[in-house]
Every structure is written in structure tokens, then in C-alpha cells.
Design goal:
38% of the residues are buried. The chain has twelve helices and twelve strands. Strand 9 (215-219), helix 9 (225-232) and strand 10 (237-241) form a beta-alpha-beta unit. Helices cover 31% and strands 15% of the residues. The chain has two domains: 7-57 and 92-276, TIM Barrel; 285-350, Type Iii Antifreeze Protein Isoform Hplc 12. Helix 9 packs parallel to helix 10. The protein is of the alpha/beta class and 352 residues long. The chain has helices at residues 34-47, 59-62, 84-91, 98-107, 119-127, 143-150, 165-177, 202-211, 225-232, 259-276, 285-288, 328-331, and strands spanning 7-9, 12-14, 21-25, 51-56, 111-116, 133-135, 156-159, 183-188, 215-219, 237-241, 296-299, 314-317. The strands form three sheets. Strands 5-4-3-10-9-8-7-6 form an eight-stranded parallel sheet. Strands 1-2 form a two-stranded antiparallel sheet.
Length: 352
Amino acid sequence: MGRNSGFEIGDCRIGTGEPAFIVAEMSANHHQDFDRARRIIDAAAAAGADAIKVQTYTPDTITIDCDEEHFWIGQGTLWEGQTLYELYESAAMPWGWHDALQQHAQRRGLVFFSTPFDMTAVDFLANLNVPAYKVSSFELVDLPLLKYIAEQKKPVILSTGMASLAEVDRAVRTIREAGNEQLILLKCTSAYPAPIEEANLRTIRHLAQSFGVPAGLSDHTLGSTAPVAAVVLGAAVIEKHLTLSRDKDGPDSAFSMEPRGFKAMVDAIRRAEQSMGDICYGLTEGQKKNRRLRRSLFIVDDVEAGEPLTPRNTRSIRPGHGLHPRYFSEVVGRRAARNLRRGTPLSWELVR
């Protein structure tokens, strides 16, 4: 793992050899309905997630209310036809919900943390004593904000969507120079939804090796293929948007996963982790009963005592009750020690 051998977020340990830390991202899927937010937490717990993550901002902490062309969302996105302010005004979760939702998540056995988008949000979350901070891909370049988050001395989970390697390096150095080594980098494709062919999951291992940190995936693709593959490639963290139903329109509905799919993803990840196991050759417990079905040396035609063994009357066949097939060349040419019936497994006391 390099500089980081692992650390805890809540009761979950993050690092090599640990189960993937699975984060259900609520984002805007609460639709500004407190009961819906609570039910998303319930769904995350029922699906087997380890954590629920929210976002902490107001439209005024993330942008300004401005009608200039720069602030209109471009065509070809889910949110075209709105200004940034309008989007965030419709998507923001009221800060007054955080405490109650945190308590509800903790009762359901989930880690609760958030993405702050400015320093006032960091201070607000510090008062809640959240166990970690997430940094959005879009904020990776805001080095003063990264420094301020790192100074809280809590684990930092940093998405790297859109970032060049040099930009990731600057962000990592900023966090470390603030005295924080508890860092996780997430491969992220900042498209909504993201095409599966742009997932580039091999980057996960490169991030881990390049910066000596646990690495994972913040996934915006549809389905569970990318998260499961990411875990097999070594992802320590998986983050995936969760909604109660994609039928209810919202800013993030189109690329979010419904509870049944989220549970299927979690189950598939856990099975994938089990399948990886250890480096292993030879017999496992499950294979022992089948060992007898391997090939071995048998008499395949009746042979009288003193008659030579030949490739015609002696063969390597299934099952495995006779001599190992590697002894075939030593056995052929020797003679039968007694009369041998077809179907007799060969042993050394039967030849001379």
C-alpha cells in the first residue's frame, strides 16, 4: 500500500485485504423531501451498504445567482436549460436535516458523511463530527478548500474525474502538506451517465501505486459491471448513487441505482471478493471428493501372470485409484505378478 497501510472510517477499515467500503450516494435524490431522505438511508442499509453520503452546500456556497451566459448549463447534459444556481437550488439538501439524518443512519448501522463544497460547509460538518470528508471531482482543483478539509485530520476521499495526473499530484501534495495522510483516491468519469467504455478501471491500480494510497471507484455508469470489476482490480471503495425510484424525475435520477439493483450490486461485490481468495494450487476442500476422478493406470484387458504389460492392456484412464500416470513408461514392459482382470487399478505389488 505504500505510505498508507490502511485506516478507519467509522467502524470500517479501509485498505489492502479489507472488504470494499461501499458508499450509497444520496446526492439530490432526496428531492428536498425529508421522509424520502430517511427512506433512502433505510434502503442503503437494507441493501448492505457500509455508508450513506450526502452533499452539503447551498446554491450560494457553490455558485452565484447570475443570468450571464457562463452560468447556463450547456446542451447535451441532463440539466440543460437551467442556470447553475437554479440546478443547485432544486438539488440542495437543507442543512437542518443533517443531524437527524446522521442519527438515523447511525441507528441503521451506516457511516454518515458528506461532501462539503466550501469552508462553511466544512465547519458545519466538523460540528457534526463526521468521520470523513468527500471531495467532488469538480472541487479537486480548489487547493485552498482541499487544505482546509485536510486540516480537519479526518480521512479524505477525493474523486479524480477530469483531473490530469499532474492535477491529482498537486491535490495529493496539498492534502499531505497539511499533515493528513488519510487519503483515498477514486477513479471517476464525470459524465452523467458515464459510458462503460470510458470507465478506464485500470486507472484504479495506477492511482494506488502512484500515490501509495487506497484507491477506488466513484461510478456513474449504468448497472453494476464497473463496480464489481473495480473490486476485482483492487478497489478499496465503491461509491454509487442510490434513489428510491428512477421514475420520479430528479437531477440525478437517470444515473442512479434503485434499491433492488443496489443490493444486487453489493451481493455481487461480496461474492467477487470471496472468489478472489488467496494464491492457491492443489486441492481445496471442495475438490478433495473429486480427486478420485483423476486419471491413473489401469489394466484394460485381462492379463495372465507373467505376461508383459503393454500400451494395449495398460492405459491411463479415469478414475484415480491406480498408479500415477507418470509411471506409465516404467510399468510398460514389466510383467504381471499374478492374473489381472480388466478394470484392475495398477499398483507396484501387481508388477515384477
